Amino acid sequence: MRHKLLPLAALAVVMLPSAAHAAAQAGGFDVETATRAWLDTLQGPARAKSDAYFEGGYWLIAWGTLVSVLIDGLLLRFGVSARFRNLGERLFKRPAGVTWITALCYSVAGTVLTLPWSIYTGFVRERQYDLMNQSLGEWLFDMAKNVGISLVIFPLLVMAVYAVIRRFPKNWWVMATGVIAAFLAFAMLLGPVYIAPLFNTYTELPAGPVRDRIVAMAKSKNIPSEHIYLFDASKQSKAISANVSGIGPTMRISLNDNLLGRSTPQEIAAVMGHEMGHYVLNHVWWGLAFFSALAALTMFLVSRIAPALIARYGARWGGIRDLGDPASLPVMGILIATVMLIVTPITKTMIRVDESQADAFGLDVAQEPDGFASVAMKLSEYRKIEPGPVEEALFFDHPSGATRVRMSMQWKKDHVPDAQMVTPPPMVPEGPKPQ
User: Using the 8-state DSSP alphabet, how is residue 386 labeled?
Assistant: First the structure.
């Protein structure tokens, strides 16, 4: 088990000089001064790089939607989706078989046409910002596995949704929501056991002080701690991460080897306390409920808009008959992509609220405010550290580093008797592993 030998909390606690020292003497621990001391450790090119990476992601949301809509539009304009359906009708007599072939061809076409965009966003850009540890070949291999999984699951989902449309033409969106929720739950159930191990190796976290600390924290909140998983995310990227995944019997807490290798014991405790918050607060179930409700809204809008579009343009699109015709898949795709773009701030806010609740829980269970602040600063490698309030509300699906540092310093003031301000070490960027 490897750790850097500079744990922040193990440094001699040093009062900040000048203004910080004066503030501490005059009125005790000052939250804003302590917060600013942490935020100012990220300066110059490192801060500019962090800001540029994250701000570029704002445009990727819009451009990604545009790419999706453009490709679906081309499939409609040249009657390609209708040709997929015609192929299905030549191969199968039953509607389910026709839908399956149509969805399979649609998925393959979409994957091929978006490949340049996927390579840019998933590999080239990550490489440009020193976040990628994979070669292009390794990245493409992982992508191929993702595509293979999608080619199994997506046509089955489409078959189920179109079966509902044919069976309940007036209120199909209600039943379709149930179908989508069931697929989501099934994927969440199987993901940790059958999907995630296709990309990373999961092992039990080795015995030692780090595991002992995590187990003690878990037991203090009556969280099952028989299994704590470690996975080798460093083969893909340098990102520090942990997660709660699965539902019911497959729910588990995992941490990646970047967190273990690049963080102090105090930082690891802070992160794992946060993940325990997701577990205790049932955020997985709340997330399932939220995204099911979002699916209901989306399917309702599709049920109202798509038939009108098909009635007007269906003949031009190669002969799309009605919404129950699987050739209408690109019409659905355009509408779904548009709705997803519009509700992006709502989706991000919902996730950010959950993350903030988990932050508060983690501070209480780990009691490592400086460790929490330190790891929040490390996450600036791929998250803008200090956005404006509107920017954070619209684009952040986690609290910003500034918000998290301020929360940790407020917790320190409220819960640590005679709290002292420490001198944070400067941020030292870490490059990718050599290939």
Answer: S
